[in-house]
Specification:
This protein is of the alpha/beta class and about 350 residues long. It has 2 domains: about 5-205, Alpha-Beta Complex (inorganic pyrophosphatase (n-terminal core)); about 210-339, Roll (Diaminopimelate Epimerase, Chain A, domain 1). It contains 14 helices and 12 strands. The strands form 2 sheets. It has a 6-stranded parallel sheet, with helices on both faces. Helix 2 links the parallel strand 1 (about 20) and strand 2. Helix 2 packs parallel to helix 5 and helix 2 runs antiparallel to helix 6 (about 160-170). The longest helix is centred in the first third of the chain and has 15 residues, at about 30-45. The chain is globular. About 40% of the residues are buried.
């Protein structure tokens, strides 16, 4: 995003606008944090702002300031579609292709609103008038901070904005341990704490809100953990029956894939989760070093993401999906063992 873009956006936002902010389907901490952070900033400009999510999100994110204002498209479809059709501006955050919004794809594509993308994923589609796209950023929340700063408005960041942005940066960097965490990331986090983000409380709200059934599900997942030493790979499976046994709720498997990656010598980790309602196997991939799970997921599992973190899906059965995954590993053995 260049200086001319910023000047144009400042002029655009100078007068009151109808604004909709949208994250991707199955929004995570970065998606909810960035949309709510931008929401709190824009309402300070006296804009009419709505955050519309494609579907529900984990309960451990529902304490964030502004959560009660979020609209869910899959439940409040008519109201959401009207807001999108009447919007002057639509911000799309933490995704860069409309198909990532599920059933919202059509209404977003058909909308005549000016669109502004803020995102850090690879290979963005060309739908936005203004595009702030940077794959080297740790998170979309870090980008929202930069966006507000580029508008010359960092003084407007209050405790609500700081809290929301801190959540997304913390979760998307794996509590600041991923390689995407830079010195700039830490400087921004320090500023967010100065603005009122309570880092200890935020961490507790996100990571220390376990219940008995969620821990039992984690135990089941770890029991299902398998290792393929020759490919330096670990994978976990969870069937629909296992999810139901432990009363699975959205977000209960967040971060479980990282247990596989934590094993000594492992470079690639995967988790395969059966979702009979959608008729797919949901896949999360993680890696170390320069091994790109983004490329692997794009090539084999209709997905993508970042070099070291990506998602995908399979329309095969759970067993057949795992067999497919195992069958493609030999072609990656050299890259995996070079790490």
């Amino acid at each position: 995003m260049n200086k001319q873009d910023i000047t144009s956006i400042k002029q655009l936002l100078y007068t009151k606008k109808k604004i909709v902010i949208v994250p991707h389907k199955n929004p995570d901490g970065d998606a909810i944090g960035s949309t709510l952070g931008l929401f709190h900033y824009l309402i300070k400009g006296n804009h009419n702002v709505h955050v519309i999510v494609p579907n529900d999100y984990p309960s451990f994110l529902k304490w964030l300031p502004g959560n009660d204002t979020i609209l869910k498209h899959d439940i409040q479809t008519k109201e959401c579609n009207t807001l999108i059709k009447e919007a002057d501006v639509i911000f799309t955050l933490d995704f860069n292709a409309f198909h990532r919004t599920g059933n919202m794809e059509t209404v977003l594509t058909e909308s005549s609103a000016l669109k502004i993308m803020i995102d850090h994923h690879q290979a963005p589609d060309d739908y936005a008038t203004y595009m702030f796209s940077d794959v080297n950023m740790s998170s979309t929340c870090e980008m929202v901070y930069h966006f507000i700063d580029m508008l010359g408005d960092s003084n407007a960041i209050d405790s609500n904005i700081a809290t929301c942005l801190y959540v997304g940066i913390m979760t998307d960097t794996g509590s600041f341990r991923f390689r995407s965490t830079t010195s700039t990331t830490h400087k921004i986090v320090a500023k967010l704490i100065e603005k009122g983000a309570d880092n200890s409380e935020i961490h507790n709200n996100i990571y220390d809100s376990n219940n008995y059934e969620r821990l039992q599900l984690l135990g089941c997942a770890l029991t299902n953990l398998r290792v393929i030493p020759e490919s330096r790979t670990a994978y976990i499976t969870l069937s629909q029956n296992e999810l139901q046994k432990y009363n699975y709720k959205k977000g209960d498997t967040e971060g479980v894939v990282n247990y596989g990656l934590s094993l000594d010598g492992i470079v690639l980790a995967a988790i395969f989760i059966e979702d009979k309602k959608e008729g797919i196997i949901k896949i999360s991939l993680r890696s170390k070093g320069d091994f790109s799970v983004n490329e692997l997921s794009r090539a084999h599992f209709e997905g993508g993401g970042h070099i070291n973190a990506a998602g995908g899906k399979s329309h095969l059965s759970l067993n057949d999906t795992v067999e497919k995954f195992i069958s493609i590993l030999p072609s990656y053995n050299k890259a995996l063992n070079d790490e």
